[in-house]
């Protein structure tokens, strides 16, 4: 039986074109850099082949390496461009968190204040991670209050609080995924699932922030947690 195709889901080529347009908007030199990195890699390998006497083998290998390097550079530029699009938007950190690989549960906007500062909750192998968006002088109390509220439900579980932003002592949006991935693994998978079940009992009577949360932005997947 033939698989049904979702007409709203773009094809791979269309996705690449969309990402290329995003890169072009964020950095007009981005696509030329991708092309030059691929061609440069091919040229270096071919020169090595000429010197060693394995020209045709080096051409084949150079094409493969050139495509690989080009795709890696393309992915890095796409990631930077997407971060630049999200930067400054309400809920940007939530969009980044939801793009992480692994056994993570992300609950956006568990706390919101009148200034539209947010606190998001992430549950994973480190335990519970609370991530704030907003100036440090405003979100400190929010994080402390949420940490106290969450600790009543998950006694004995490590709770981390992270301020995401551009201020002193805050983690920039582009480094948020990697920062969380580096946290120690305090729990095993059964314990993670148990913590998730406990946190479902937390009340969710929180006013949603004004304006739309970032949607439709496919964040690049972060590195797998070791």
Automatic annotation (TrEMBL):
This is DUF4191 domain-containing protein. The chain crosses the membrane at residues 30-48, 54-74. Residues 187-226 are annotated as: Disordered. It holds the Pfam family DUF4191. Keywords: Membrane, Transmembrane, Transmembrane helix. InterPro entries: DUF4191 (IPR025445). It comes from the Bacteria. The keyword Transmembrane helix applies.
């Amino acid at each position: 039986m033939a698989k049904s195709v979702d007409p709203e889901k773009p094809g791979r080529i269309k996705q690449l074109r969309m990402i290329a347009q995003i890169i072009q908007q964020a950095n007009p030199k981005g696509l030329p850099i991708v092309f030059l990195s691929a061609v440069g890699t091919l040229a270096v390998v071919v020169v090595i082949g000429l010197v060693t006497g394995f020209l045709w083998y080096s051409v084949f290998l150079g094409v493969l390496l050139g495509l690989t390097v080009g795709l890696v550079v393309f992915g890095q530029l796409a990631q930077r461009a997407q971060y630049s699009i999200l930067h400054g938007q309400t809920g940007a950190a939530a969009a980044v968190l939801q793009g992480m690989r692994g056994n993570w549960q992300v609950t956006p906007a568990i706390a919101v204040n009148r200034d539209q500062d947010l606190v998001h909750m992430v549950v994973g192998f480190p335990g519970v991670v609370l991530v704030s968006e907003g100036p440090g002088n405003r979100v400190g109390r929010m994080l402390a209050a949420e940490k106290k509220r969450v600790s009543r439900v998950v006694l004995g579980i490590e709770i981390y609080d992270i301020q995401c932003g551009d201020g002193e002592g805050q983690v920039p949006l582009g480094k948020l995924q990697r920062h969380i991935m580096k946290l120690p693994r305090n729990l095993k998978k059964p314990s993670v699932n148990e913590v998730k079940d406990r946190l479902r009992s937390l009340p969710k009577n929180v006013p949603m922030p004004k304006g739309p949360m970032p949607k439709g932005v496919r964040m690049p997947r972060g590195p797998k947690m070791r």
